[in-house]
Amino acid sequence: MTSLDRRSFLKRMAMASAAAAASSLVPGVAFGEELDRYLGDLAGRSDVTWHRTPCRFCGVGCGLLVGIEDGRAVAVRGNPDSPVNRGLACVKGYHSVQALYGQDRLTRARVRRNGSLQEVPIDEALDLVAERLRGTMEEHGKDSVALYGSGQWTIPDGYVASKFFKGGLGTNNLEANARLCMASAVTGFMTTFGMDEPPGCYEDIDHADVFVLWGNNMSEMHPVLFSRMLDQRERRPGVRIIDLATRTTRTSYAADRSLIFAPQADLAIANAICHEIVRRGWADRDFVNRHVTFKRGRTDIGYGLEDDFSFTDSATDASWDDFVRFLDDYTPERAEEISGVPAADIRWLASMYGDPSRKVMSFWCMGLNQHTRGTWVNNLVYNIHLLTGKISTPGNSPFSLTGQPSACGTVREVGTLTNRLPYGTVTNAAHREKAAEIWNIPVENIDPEPTHHTVSMFRALDRGDLRFMWIQVTNPMVTMPHLNRYREGARRDGRFIVVSDVYPTPTTDVADVILPAAMWIEREGLFGNSERRTQHFPKLLDPPGDAMSDTWQLIEVARRMGLGDLFPWSEAEHIDRIWEEYIRFHDAPDHRMAPLSELRERPGIIWPYVDGRETLWRYNTETDPAADPERGRFDFYGNDDHRAWIWLRPYEPPPEWPDDEYPFWLNTGRVLEHWHSGSMTRRIPTLHRAVPRAYVEIHRQDAQEMGIVDGETVRLVSRRGSIELPTRIDHRAQPPRGQVFVPFFDETLLINDLTLDAYCPISAQPDYKKCAVRVERIG
Amino acid sequence: MAPRVPLFGRVLLIGGAALGMLLVLTLLIPTLRDLGDRPDFPPAAPMADPGPPIASEAGPFRSRPGELAVGPEVERRADAQPRSMEIYRSLRAYPGAPPRIPHGLTEEEFRKNLCNSCHVRGGFAPRFSAYTPVTPHPEYTDCLQCHVPDAMTVGVGIPQLSADVICSQCHVDPDSPPPSLVSIDWSPMEWPELDQRAMEGSPTWIPHTLQLRENCLACHGGPSAVDGIRTTHPERADCRSCHVPVEEAEVFTRPLDGGSP
After folding, report:
1. What is the C-alpha to C-alpha distance for residues A254 and A233, in angstroms, rounded to an integer?
2. A768 within domain boundaries
C-alpha cells in the first residue's frame, strides 16, 4: 500500500466510523447501537428488563446492561451510556452473568465436623464463627484473629470490615488480596504525590499521541481500554502504541513497536529515559522548578524473604544536580547491557516522551506492581512524566491500572489494609480521632500500630501467631506465592478458617466453616474502578438458598459479638446508611464522593465530586477544585510542600536469578478468558472451553534444544515446589529464550507452589513475575 | 491445537514467512513515516519486531486485508453476485478444506501463479461481477499447491460462480458422473452451526480452527464476506477479546471438598 493509499484509507476509515457513530464521535457507541438493533426483539420484549451495573470482573469497570427475565439474568449488553466502555465489553463481561449459575454454587452453610463438611443452618454457622472469634481472642489475644478480604469486596463490605475489626475488635489484622496486586501502585502514588490514585482518567486515551505500555498485556488484561486505544490509532494518524514487555503477547503484535527487556530491567530503562531527556535538554525545567522536589531513599533494601523482615524507608532531600549525577549511571548503553533493549531504541523511546509536541500516556499494572522494587519502578515512571511536565493535563497521563473491580473503591479508598483507615492511616492521630468520632467509639479502640501485611499474615498463620482467619471473596489457596508453605500453615491443628465464597475452591478445602455468599447483582453494592469512578449497582436477583452478602455476614457476626451498636441498620436501608456514614470520611474537596441518590441515576461518578462536578484531572488548578491557583498551573497538594517528588531510585537485581541448576525465569499471569483464580470464569462454559487448563509457554528454540515438542507434558521445578503440565509453543504468546510463562487460573495446576514470596519492602507486594525454575522432560 | 505444519511444508513455511514479513514490512513502512519518528532518533529495528510471528495472534492486527475488503461503509454494488454459504460450502470438500478454484484460469495465470494479485487486495472484479474473496494467508504464494482449478477450465478463463453452473461444468447430465470420475463413499464432517453463542446478544464463538485462517477479517470483513458471517464491526481489530474458540467440549466441575492437593 502506498503512503497515499494508506492516508486516504485512514481518512475513509475515520469518516466511516464517524458516520457510523451518527450523533457522536465517541468510539463504541456505534457498536452499542448495532447491538441494540441485533437485540431488537429481546430489547423490546416486555418480559426482559435491562438494568445498569458495573461488570463483576476487572478494574476497568465497564458499564453493563443485564437483561433479567423471570428473576433470572438472561443476557448482557455493553452500556452505551457508560463513559468507560461506550457500549463495548470483552468476552468475560459478555458472559459474566453465567457465573451466577454454576451447578456447584454454594447455597448452604457448612461446618467441618470429623473431617467432613456438613450442611448446617446459616444461623448456626454464624453463631459458630462468632463463638470461635471471641474464644480465640480470649485465649490468644486480640491480634490472633484476622480478616482477609478482597478488591472484589464492594465498598460497603470493606467499610463494615474496617469498622468491625479496627473500630470494634481493635485489631489491625485486616488485609485484602489487593495487597498482592496494587500495593506498589499505592506506595508509588503516596511517595510521589502524597495521595493515592491516578491524576488523570480514561478520557486521556482520547487525547494522547503515544501510549507506552510498561509490562502490560492490555489486549488480554484490559481489553476494552485497549480497544479504545486501537480505535484512537485508527481515527487519528500519528497515534502509536509501544509495547515494553518481558514477553511477546497479543499486545505486542497489535503495537507499533515491541521492545522486549530482561526481567527487572525496567528500573534501568526508566532511568535511562530520564538520562536521555536531561542530556538532550528535553526536560521541562520551568515545570520542574515550580512543581518538583528531588528525594533520595534508602538503597539495598532487601526482599522480605525472612519471617522477621522489616523495613522503613527514609527520604532525604536531593537537588537537580544530584539527580543529574545519579543519572550518569544510566546511559542508554548501560541500560542496554542490563535490559537487552538496544540503546538506539531507548533513545527513540526517550524521544517520544521528550518531544514537547506529543502527549504521552503510560499504562502499567502487574508488571510494575508485582515487583520486588515495585514502589521504585512506579516512582520512576512518574519521574519521566514529571521531568517532561506531562501530567495532569488531557492526554498526558501516567496511569496505573487495577485488576479488580473495587481495588480502588474498597481496598484503597476505604483502606482495608493493616495500616489504613478510611481516608487515612492508623499511625496518624488525627485520622484515628476522625474515625473514632464518625464511628462513635473511644479513640483508644483503634490500635495505632499496623500488624501484618498479607504475606506476613499467612506466615503468622503458619507459625501459629494467628489462630483464626476469615477469608471473604478471594481464593488465597490458589493465589498466594510460595503456596505450599501457606497451604500447610492453614491446615495445621489449632487454626480455624472461615471462608465466604460462591463456589467450592482450594480455599474452601481448608475451611472449617463455609458461608455461602450473595454474588454481585444478588445484592446492592458499589465498586470503585481505576479512574476514580464510583459505580452503584442495585440488587437485581435473589441470592440462592441461604446465600448472604459479605456485608451482612459481617454485621450478623458483629452483632453476635456484642457490637450491634456499630451497625444499627435494617437490612432494607443498610447500604444507604453505610454510604452516608462512609462519605463523611471523604468530605473535603480533594476526595468528596457523590451522594447515593446521584450514583443510582448515573453510570458512575469520578471523585473528587465537588459542586456537582467530576474532577477529571487532579492537581491541575484549572480542573481540580482542591488545587490552589496561587501555586501556578499545578498544585500537588498531597505533599506538604505542594510539589510532586522525583525519586533517585537505582537499579537493583531481583533476589533469585536463573543459574545452572534453575536456568529459566518463571513468569506467571493471566489469560483473557480467565479472571484470577478461575473460580468464576471456569464455571462459564464459553470461557472454560476456550482455555480449559493451564500450560507452560516456552520458546521454540529452548524446547528444541531439550527435545520437547508442543503439547508434551514437562515438569517445572523451583526451589519451592514442582508441577507437571503441558507445553504450549508459539500459541497465544511467546516468552523470550530463557523464560517460561504459566497462567495461574487453574486450581488443578497450582503454579504458585513454585513462585517466590519475596516482596517489595516498601509496599509488601510479592513478585509473581520472577523466580528461577528448571524444565525437566518426563520419562 | 496449534497450527501445525507438516514436515515437508516447513521449508515452504520459512520461505513463506520471510516473504510474509517482507510484505508486512512493505505495508508498514509508510505507516511509520506517517507517524513521524524524529529523524535524529531512529529506532534500531525498522518495525515492531516481536520475533517469529504467531500467525493466529498477529493476523487480525497485522496483515490487514486489502482496503476494499473492510469497513462497514463498503456497500455491495447492486450488480455484484452474492457469495452465499451454499456456494462457499460447495467449493470445500469438508469444513476447513482448501477451496477449489471455481473460475477459469488463463494459461498465464495458471503458469505464473498470479492469484495473489487479486486475492490479497480484494475488491470488485468486473470480470466476475463479484467481490474477490480475500486470502487469510497472503504469506503463502504457491497457491496451486492447495487450491486447484478444475482441469477443463484451465485456459478457458470464463468466470462461473453459481453452484449450478459449476456443477454443469462436469455434469452435463446432472444425474450421471463425468466419464473419468469414480464416485467415492464418503461424507464430510458436519459444517459448524452458524451463530453459536451462550446467550442472546453475546459474542459468537469461533466454531472452527484458526490454522491458515488466522486473519479473521479476510473472511469475515468486507463486501466479499459470505452472507451470514460478515462482521458488522471490522474496525475493532482485536477480534478475540470478544470471540473465543472452543478448545474442548467439557465444562468445569470439582468436588465440594478435597479437590486440591
Report:
1. 11
2. yes
